[in-house]
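User: Run a structure prediction on this.
Assistant: Running it now.
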Amino acid sequence: MVAALFGLLTGFVWRRVPALALRLPAQRVALLAGCLAAFFYVLLAGFAVPAQRTLYMLLVAALAMGSGRVVAPSRTLSLALLVVLLIDPWSVLAVGFWLSFGAVGALLYVGSAVVGDSGGWRERIRSWGVVQWAATLASLPVLLLVFQQFSLVSPLANAVAIPVVSFIVTPLALLAAVIPWWPIAALAHAVLGWLMLFLEWCATWPVWEAPAPPLWAALVAGLGVAVCLLPRGMPGRLLGLALLLPALFWPVERPPAGEAWITVLDVGQGLATVVRTRDHALVDDPGPLYSAESDAGQRVVVPDLRSLGIDAVDVLMVTHRDSDHAGGMASVQSALAVGKVLSSLGDGEPCRNGQNWDWNGVTLTVLHPEAADYAETRKSNNLSCVLRIEAGGTRMLLTSDIEARDEAALLQRDPAALAAEVLLVPHHGSRTSSTPEFIAAVGAQHALIPIGYRNRFGHPKAEVVERYVAAGTSLWRTDRDGALRVELGTNGVGIAAWRDERRRYWHGR
């Protein structure tokens, strides 16, 4: 749209200067101006994959027009795809790659339905509806696979926002950058403000959410999209809707009664753990704060829960106030319905020794801190909430950032209560924790270390690792193994590592 705007303006001016028009055809100058404008606009937009795709398609079409050749739209899209992959083969891992090329491919696929209209208002409305239907439907399998949700009102939002931003806001903003006259920028701001009010209203509409479907269901849904977008009159179009059903209504995978599934997420240097029983969910620490704009709650915890079909958690436990554990708290609370908050921060109900509850035959018990510790302890690590999960006679101990003094206090109170088959290593393997006495009392078969790759603290410390190895404990690390899933139940303990189940050649193994 930007290229078309600058191309039309340049051609309009060029034709009115005979000396210029006789020296070089206005059509070719307009093509060159449009391509240059598009290139600079793509640079301003950050050179993302969707912007690259548009630019390369435009350049291919411009070269074809300038040389007098006729290139089919499908070949133009294919050449743009080739250029993107030659420049950046890793772009196939970007969601924008699939959304961008998929949507444009769908628009070309249904192009015959909107070309050659008589121009009446009814035909224009029908063409608009076909275009929005095609773009929305084409993005559906990717959105369900990656984000587990899609907006029901996105066709309306796109139909209004795209032309307003492209034909009004962007030209006015560019004009204001060239001509520093405040009414131009004020008008662009006012139009954008009205648009945002409309989009905020659209955002209040419901969003379809579903658990992440398997890859085969998403591929079948893609085939269903192609069938649904067949021309009118073609038989079997309703079959396409049937092919979409597995992706739309994929069932939620739940632990059996009496079992607990615990996932220690890979959030870098920090901690975020999701505990699930058949009908309940608990988040033990929502992960670290990455920057002022992002945190693990927004980037990791909430997407993981949505992929599992979970839109509410019964308990959000924030073990202590360090940002590598509590940084994602606000994001989790804003995105999901939270039944109760347990923490040592002063927000919600304080966690303290003796709290326990039963979910579907799984017992969860808080072992630390004591109620008196809140008045006597000032260091946040020493107030870390310690949670024990027991299912089918097997246990896992979540220790957060407790230190040697807290381990000694737990040993003094009830050493037998610490026994567990699986241990989340205290304080990321710091030398301030994991005393030999504590390791012996727990007697874990498996120890999980939540750490960031090449973290600046040097966790886990070599001497701490040696203690666990000497005790005969199997070590798992999120920096090496990715997210770790633990299953507790009557069948014993099962542990699976994300990178073992989903091997990729760039893991370096």
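The longest strand covers residues 312-318.
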